[in-house]
Amino acid sequence: MDNGLCDHRSGWRRSGPGDRDSGSAGKTCGNRETGAFTPLLESQRRRGLAACPDRGGGIAMYLEINGSIYRLLIEQEQGGWLIPYETPGAPVFLTRAGWGKRVAVPAEPDGPRTKAEQKRLDMIRPLTEERACITDKILRRRMAVRIAQEHHTTSRRVLRLYYIFLAHGTIQLKRKALKPKREEQKKIFAAAIERYYLSAKRPSLRDAYDCLLLEQYTDEEGKLLPEYPSWHSFRQYYYRSGMHKKSHKIIAREGLSDYQRNHRLLGGSAPLWKDHLGSYQMDATQADIYLVSSFDRSLVIGRPNIYLAVDTVSELIAGIYVGLEAGENAVMACLANAAADKVEICSKYGIHMTQEQWPSSGLPAEIITDKGREFESARVGELCVRYGMERESLPPFRPDRKSLVEKTFDLLQSRYKSLLRGKGVIEPDAQERWSTDYRSQAVLTLEEYTELLLRIILYLNNRPLKNYPASTEMLQQQVPMTPAGIWRWMQENGRSDLLEVEKEEIYCLALPRKEARVTRRGVEWDGFVYINPELRNLLEQLRGQKVTVAFDAQNTAKAYLLYECGYLPLALAQSCSCYTGMAASEAQLYRKHAQETIHMLDKQDVQARIELLRSTKELIRQAENGGMKRRQSGSEISANRETERRKRT
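Structure (tokenized):
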């Protein structure tokens, strides 16, 4: 490279433009430029030192100024252009008065140039060939910008490499072999991260570093040893080794269940899991809304429970239960709703629809649930045995395994939350301090909320499924890609495993059971009394005994007596007729409210009785002090009576 500067790789100074004798190596230029090695100094170069004799000797000159080392690039009469050696930067001009003493510095290492080094040298060649760039800042920057554009880099990087070359005479990369100590340290870091950081206790990375220091780099008194790894090196090893991206970290800190739910790779499609109608995914949740009593809107009855049954193949919402009950009774009610005629159910809430809008009916051939207690109950097992239903229990804490029903809960509630905000809907800040009491905002009754959900279900069952994995046959027949449309198509093509059952039988089978006692008044439990004149003889025989009854928790008007595997109807007695049409929970709330009223009236009655007793005693005391008592005959009493009568008339 013809640059007029020292070339530490060859040990020779190459002549450049402006030299007085371009044919003799080792001679200086007219302005006495320094920085050349001669063959006579080869021994010194091999020892790793660049000698610094008097100027003009053709050897690189280094000066120590205020504790820093500078290389003299161009020497002039008044001073010279210097560049920092340890932290190369832009060359500066310094007069001779500011020069310090001359020093020797280690020579740059010899060795073959790598491709990267040669590429950098070729890139800055125009700058090194133009010696005016040392003194002309504007020219230097203009050429750096042009080079950066040609090589698709930045001018800052070009200048940095140029300054390094001026200061060192090379830009050879420093390749340092990893010390055995460094390798041992990496093993210690890996073991510490595995032991302390990848833990279910989920400590921070800094806590793991502190534990490492305490375990490996402290003496017996707990004082830190002089040589200990820095926090920066520990953190750098963690990220450079890619340990923050490995699945092992998530599994160790968050658990396998969290990794499988939220981080594992996804493949396949939920509707392709099954190929026939009748595989229902079931789950339950508590609605994010508070409701009021339908008989007294000033009474808040809490948050209702929602149970859903969603068909796997068509994504159709086949059954729903909305109420205050939970457990196996709610599961049975949801299955009964799935098996019933939806036109009749919706008509009870004033919703007019057709069978095509909600075509599902009949019991499913299979229910897919988690290991919830209500889905593993004896009554659900009895139902499965009686009708030949299958029950598939998925692992707990894995909502992603039954994603359709889980997502349906979000779709249901997201449809009304914005409209009912401020009307009992629970916001995310419900658990924060000074948050709103959403119970005081409740306005909807259970019936109104159920009607709202039914209308939303009708919409969801007829919405377009944009990402549904339709088969070629479905595309050829132009099947409407809606849950209801897919259901109808599969049912017409015989791809249905639904079980047909009698309406009354499935209704009675789904009713909750309760233990009651037969008394003179009838069949009693929880303050309700039921009778049936046609069963008078049977009830007379069962008087004093405990029996099992099935009742509708949403309507206390009627119940059924379970006797010899049959369901005998019962009706509310006249003494309890005020509860007709109420849900059992609402009736209990109404009764509690009535009892509180009676208790308050009873307290007032006690106060009135005390007041009456006090006033009576006072009246008697005044009467006794009004006159003297003496014995009188009957004639005197008659005369006194006549006198009193005259005075009152």
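Residues 291 and 446 are 6 Å apart (CA to CA). Residues 1-58 have pLDDT under 50 and may be disordered.
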